[in-house]
Design brief:
91 residues, mainly alpha
Amino acid sequence: MNWMMICVRKCVHLYSVTVSQVLLYELKGALAACETELQSLKAQYEALCPGKSLEIPDKLRGGTISAAASASVALARYVVLTSLGEINSKK
């Protein structure tokens, strides 16, 4: 397998990682919109029912999205470094 084929394969892998990252950031934006909506509904509820408080469960909050973003970046780095290593080893 020549270096051009290896480069093309790695570019395809990198493209798929990039598509995954775009999807991740779209999901992150949707999650932020949902969290904003939850906070808005909480404020409306508390305004309509004085003296009552509405607690949003932790599982409805988006605290784990940053871990997913970190994993995606690590995967992208791995793909790039692996492809550079394979290309350099074939020279």
